[in-house]
Amino acid sequence: MTRTARGKTPLLDAIHETAGDLHRLSLISDTEMQQYNALCLTPVSDFDGDKIRLLRDRYQLSQTVLASLLNTSPATVRRWEADNQHPNGSAQKLLDLLERKGLETLL
């Protein structure tokens, strides 16, 4: 599930902080804290063909190498860059990590 429609808000930050305090006091379980953590994840960016191509150029990656890093096929990367298809799920998350954290996070 992509959370691009709703980003972090002061309300979510306050809820997460309160949940963390309650967790430290053992008033909520580890499972409940994991649920609060999931609600407060940073939204994942959407990637169109131009953005993927720019990302590939930034790290001087071929379509084949990017496909290998994302565990997909070079044909899929070509379709993304031609805007015939868009990455979703794990590929979108990995592209977001590549953009935000750099190539070393995928190696």
From TrEMBL:
GO terms for molecular function: DNA binding. Residues 52-106 form the HTH cro/C1-type domain. It comes from Thiorhodovibrio frisius. It holds the Pfam family HTH_3. It comes from the Bacteria. InterPro entries: Cro/C1-type_HTH, HTH-type_reg/antitoxin, Lambda_DNA-bd_dom_sf. Keywords: DNA-binding, Transcription, Transcription regulation. This is Putative transcriptional regulator. Gene3D superfamilies: lambda repressor-like DNA-binding domains.
